[in-house]
User: Fold Recombinase domain-containing protein from Nocardioides luteus.
Amino acid sequence: MYKNKDLLAERGFLVPGARWRQQIEAVLDVKGRHKHPEGDSVTGAWDRLVAEVDEWDGTALISVELLAPAGPETVDRVAKSFRGVTPEIVLSLRDINRQIPSMWQELIQNGADWTWPEFVSAVNKSRPGTRERRHSRPGRRFWSEQDMVAIARRWGQAGPLHLVTVPPPGSPATLLLERFGAAMGFDPDGMKSPPPKNTSLGAATVEVLRELNAELDRRGLAFPAAMGLRKHTLGKRLMPALTADDPRIGLQAPRWTQSFTRDQAAELRGLDATIHGDLDDLTPVDVRGIDPRKVTDKQVRDAAVASHAALRTDLNKKLADPTIPGEIDPGEGRKATARAVSALADLVEWSVRREELVRT
Assistant:
């Protein structure tokens, strides 16, 4: 949307905020937060965004996934924020099996250190509608953002509801944008798609990030400490370039996902909502790739060494500081993997402490 901001404006469609970060800050504000995880104040950000929308004579889009798990009070505030306008709600839905590895990876990039078996088991045991539902922290986190029916019902109280289904693998690349455009009321013709910024990481690389999170926790640097460095610099920018030979995370659709999806689709059909696409698109499909439990220590060590080298080079380019921790020679085996991860943590901790010294 931001890549095509000017084109959309010509067509009467506003993407408010000079950049998406301003929408994120606004949503944090409306949810009652005072600061962005990186420390910046967000107070007043929602009112500023609303004012920009109110001045626009046409349709505007506020799109931040942090709104999905918002509670009734936030939903009510959003619904009543805009002058003389009832907002329309657009909820995008994707099959639940593709969401499991996707969200695990995203949570790791946001500081979690849950193992793959721990996460998959928690998702299963915490799923809605289970008689013996067992709540757990990773399970609660997953379903707060992935229980399609609960989210649709809650946000359906704010205004007319649109459900956009993400097409299955192999569909035309433009189909999702066409469906989203139909829901929002804009013509996607001529829109340019920028290179993706949220590319998947390889299974070994995700494990490096997970172990890095655990190591930083032990050092008293729990997330969001160094959020910009480990999420945006490592997770989003440097690590994707290192994963050409690192197999992606795969998951055969567990049996429970089939019946769960049928139940959710039936309830979604019963809602007062406009469907863009087909709820059959939610049928779980296997995710091609490797089971993260089969990743070897050597693969993790190699990924950690490569990440260490990439981050050190990046810090040198930015800072040209001779005190940056040096190269490593980790050797072989599990202990070598731990040493490589520890060396990567040294770089992150060095950067955090340096920033603290600069501020003071």
Observations:
- The longest helix spans residues 333-359.
- The chain has a mean pLDDT of 93.
- Residues 202-247+296-359 form one domain.
- The two ends are 39 Å apart (CA to CA).
